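User: tokens in, sequence out, please.
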């Protein structure tokens, strides 16, 4: 099911100047030779923000999410049913809706994942008690009662204010089935599928902006070769129609991590028939799928390797982007990183097929640096969907019956809201490395943007668990004026929120900065994410 290739590229980094260029690509300029970060608590970094060169918009969909019929994501996490004692609106938990609204989820991908390619949508409509059950073969072999289907998903999207992104079944579904689903959701005609929708209680069609033609077709979605999938894409996509003013942004199944050949074939064969091409990459802290490691019990070596692995996203986005540039120099086709995030061992005592894991400050740093990478490549990356929203993998929210908590990763998404649809401010960073056992990665990660009212937001991650950084910033093309700051950090690298102590990790006000003649100076605490506004 999870056929991961091991062809991971290496992260090149040693005390050097990094230019996050206008196009978002990382350019290494030279060595600076400062000592290793962990032995240098007073390490310094220089940042230049070129607000006068701000050009590309950070698509808010980079802050998208993914909810699959997997473990306790949909059932319990979102859907409790109308008769539940847990407060709900038409069966959907109110506490979860409120939490997701607060981070302004722009787009939600559903129903999978691997589940999408065994999902038959007609099983999930009509009176709930009459819906046929199925076996969720990928995820624990549990019986899926189909109580959460198309109507419930669209209701969820309306309740949280997110755009729906539906993934169709290419692996085990027919072309007719996919065609009829799109008609059911989006047609306003006096047609069989639109009338079936009306009979099931929804008069008006829904707006469906995003549709995926299959998921991981190289793996759980059918084990196809790229040439074969490209032909399947042509065929299925032909019947994904634009009804009644609904224009669908078509997303083709893209590569697994470093499978560059998949991208080459897809772009050459069907690049002109798609709007977006997906990419999947998970961060396994150990770099070893066989021994992923605990989400909460780890030491500095596992912290360092998690950051190292997560930074591979930079290499991936750049290299797939270069291939896309050859076929699509105008960058019409979006790179859609519709599955990413940390993948740990499941929590002890939980169903291995449910992928339930805790979420620590380490996950938050990985989220912060990954979102910085997407921001800096926003000329090509048009959407990303962290896996997954609730109770699965790197979740925003964890639930235990009526209880709910938000994770450190949730707080990063909340802190980064000002980047949604803002204009990327190119950033040039010269900083120290974070070195452990001879392995070096850049200690600081940054992205910056300017919003519609002219405010600039700078998100900075200090990846070192022990060393602070004094960062001096020159701002070109904008006045700093008054400044505000927030920080997410904790005393321990594995700090996390539990149902007994749900607020161990949460953001707080931050004031360790000052405006200077040319810009500002800031002291970044070890293992922290700082968001500055001026
Ligand atoms: O997110 C969990 C699984 O990871 C998805 O179902 C699949 O697409 C990927 O392999």
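Assistant: Sequence out:
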């Amino acid at each position: 099911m999870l056929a991961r290739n091991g062809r991971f590229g290496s992260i090149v980094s040693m005390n050097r100047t990094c230019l996050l260029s206008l196009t978002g690509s990382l350019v290494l300029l030279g060595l600076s030779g400062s000592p290793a970060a962990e032995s240098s608590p007073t390490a310094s970094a220089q940042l230049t923000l070129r607000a006068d060169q701000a050009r590309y918009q950070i698509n808010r969909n980079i802050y998208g999410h993914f909810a699959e019929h997997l473990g306790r994501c949909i059932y319990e996490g979102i859907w409790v049913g109308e008769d539940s004692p847990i407060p709900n609106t038409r069966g959907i938990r109110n506490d979860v809706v409120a939490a997701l609204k607060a981070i302004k989820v722009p787009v939600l991908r559903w129903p999978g994942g691997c589940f999408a390619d065994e999902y038959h949508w007609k099983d999930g409509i009509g009176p709930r008690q009459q819906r046929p059950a199925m076996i969720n073969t990928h995820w624990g072999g549990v019986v899926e009662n189909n109580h959460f289907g198309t109507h419930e998903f669209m209701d969820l999207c309306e309740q949280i204010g997110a755009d729906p992104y539906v993934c169709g079944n290419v692996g085990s579904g027919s072309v007719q089935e996919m065609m009829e689903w799109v008609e059911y959701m989006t047609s306003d005609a006096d047609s069989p599928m639109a009338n079936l929708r009306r009979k099931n209680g929804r008069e008006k069609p829904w707006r469906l902006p995003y549709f995926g033609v299959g998921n991981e077709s190289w793996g759980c979605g059918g084990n196809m070769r790229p040439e074969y999938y490209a032909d399947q894409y042509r065929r299925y996509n032909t019947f994904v129609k634009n009804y009644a003013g609904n224009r669908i942004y078509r997303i083709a199944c893209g590569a697994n991590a470093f499978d560059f050949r998949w991208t080459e074939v897809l772009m050459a064969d069907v690049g002109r028939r798609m709007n977006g091409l997906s990419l999947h990459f998970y961060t396994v802290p150990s770099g070893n799928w066989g021994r992923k490691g605990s989400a909460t019990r780890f030491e500095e070596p596992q912290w360092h390797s998690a950051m190292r692995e997560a930074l591979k996203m930079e290499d991936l986005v750049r290299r797939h982007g270069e291939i896309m540039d050859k076929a699509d120099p105008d960058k019409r086709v979006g790179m859609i990183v519709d599955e990413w995030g940390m993948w740990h061992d499941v929590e002890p005592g939980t169903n291995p097929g449910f992928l339930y894991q805790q979420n620590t400050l380490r996950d938050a740093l990985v989220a912060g640096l990954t979102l910085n990478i997407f921001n800096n490549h926003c000329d090509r990356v048009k959407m990303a969907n962290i896996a997954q929203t609730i109770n699965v993998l790197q979740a925003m929210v964890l639930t235990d019956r009526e209880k709910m908590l938000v994770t450190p990763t949730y707080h990063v998404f909340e802190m980064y809201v000002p980047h949604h649809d803002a204009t990327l401010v190119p950033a040039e960073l010269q900083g120290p490395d974070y070195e452990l056992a001879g392995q070096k990665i850049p200690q600081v990660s940054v992205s910056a943007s300017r919003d519609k009212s002219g405010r600039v937001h700078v998100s900075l991650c200090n990846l070192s668990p022990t060393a602070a950084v004094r960062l001096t910033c020159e701002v070109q093309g904008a006045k700093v004026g008054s400044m505000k700051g927030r920080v997410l950090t904790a005393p321990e690298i594995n700090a996390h929120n539990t149902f007994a102590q749900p607020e161990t990790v949460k953001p707080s006000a931050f004031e360790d900065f000052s405006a200077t003649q040319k810009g500002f100076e800031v002291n970044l605490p070890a293992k922290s994410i700082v968001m500055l506004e001026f």
